[in-house]
Specification:
- This protein is an alpha/beta fold and 301 residues long.
- The protein has three domains: 80 residues, Winged helix-like DNA-binding domain superfamily/Winged helix DNA-binding domain (Arc Repressor Mutant, subunit A), CATH 1.10.10.10; 101 residues, D-Maltodextrin-Binding Protein, domain 2, CATH 3.40.190.10; 104 residues, Periplasmic binding protein-like II (D-Maltodextrin-Binding Protein, domain 2, 3-Layer(aba) Sandwich), CATH 3.40.190.10.
- The strands form two sheets. Strands 3, 4, 5, 6, 7, 8, 9, 10 and 11 form a nine-stranded mixed β-sheet that branches. A two-stranded antiparallel ribbon has the order 1-2.
- The radius of gyration is 24 Å and the shape is globular.
- It starts with 9 loop residues before the first helix and ends with a helix.
């Protein structure tokens, strides 16, 4: 029989997780129905147990130390596992959770939800979205579809779609530009775009023009939106030209709501299907994985 576990009172870990997540003892207390001193006292107890600080006290809250962050990652994952298992046991209902970004969910997954659900009748499909890059530690989905280079340690990642990007615009703008315009012609219209990220996560207008051998002038007109659906909405309304990621804009091209108005550029990045490398896949997970890979393959061929 295994020896007794070396654990502090579990409530102290729950308090620590909330304090770390909020970066603020008062907010953690509000969530848990505890006073700020009660939160502080439990954190102090943990710190005494570990012989070192878990937080740096700041003017506007607290920030995790290196050892605090290491503990937070494992406590959060463990508490989420416990919480999910309790949910599963309580409802005895099978769920399949898919995490992705809003663009992929809206333009690719949503139109296929009925087909996906038909594969696994009786299973509740949950789709959740995040604007951030995939984080293996904080992610408790059964499957995730994220954009990147395919390198997420601790995961099994299979490429679904390469990053294929083409400028797109609505019919009115296309009529003005003419078919097969020179790259420079696009500079006469507002370039619709997402905010820049550091490090860069996807192709930018600068990259696209560079691939056409054109330097993007600093004063080029642009409009920035913080969600891809807004970029596409602006293009549909004729506000300018957007970069269209395949397969997200494929249905809009097919229905002639958008038109191609420039050359396609492909990079090494793409959309990947990700599963945790250390958890065995359930039968329903394997079914959905096969179906997603088939759907992607059919799209390319």
């Amino acid at each position: 029989m295994a020896g007794k576990l070396q654990l502090p009172p579990l409530q102290a870990l729950v308090v620590f997780e909330a304090a770390a997540r909020h970066g603020n003892f008062t907010a953690a207390g509000n969530e848990l129905g505890l006073s700020q001193p009660a939160v502080s006292q439990r954190i102090q107890m943990l710190e005494n147990l570990l012989n070192g600080p878990l937080f740096e006290r700041r003017h506007r809250g607290v920030q995790l130390t290196v050892s605090g962050n290491a503990l937070y990652q494992i406590v959060r994952t463990s508490l989420m596992d416990i919480s999910e298992q309790i949910e599963r046991t309580r409802y005895q209902r099978s769920t399949l959770r898919i995490d992705t970004d809003m663009g992929f969910a809206s333009y690719w997954l949503m139109p296929r939800m009925n087909a996906l659900q038909a594969l696994i009748p009786g299973v509740e499909v949950q789709v959740s979205t995040s604007p951030n890059d995939y984080n293996f530690r904080d992610n408790n989905a059964h499957l995730a579809i994220y954009f990147g280079s395919g390198n997420w340690p601790g995961t099994h990642a299979q490429k679904l779609f390469p990053e294929d990007v083409i400028p797109v615009c609505n019919y009115d703008v296309m009529q003005k530009i003419g078919s097969d315009p020179a790259a420079e012609t696009l500079l006469n219209y507002p370039l619709l775009k997402l905010p820049e990220t550091r490090p860069q996560r996807w192709l930018t207008w600068e990259d696209w023009f560079h691939a056409q051998g054109v330097a993007l002038p600093a004063q080029a007109g642009s409009r920035t939106f913080n969600a891809y659906s807004l970029v596409i909405q602006a293009a549909l309304e004729g506000q300018g030209i957007a970069l269209g990621w395949r397969p997200l804009i494929s249905a809009l091209l097919a229905s002639q709501q958008l038109f191609v108005c420039g050359a396609q550029v492909r990079t090494e990045r793409g959309y990947y299907l990700i599963s945790a490398g250390n958890k065995p896949a359930s039968a329903q997970q394997e079914k959905v994985t096969r179906w997603l890979l088939d759907e992607a393959w059919n799209f390319h061929h």
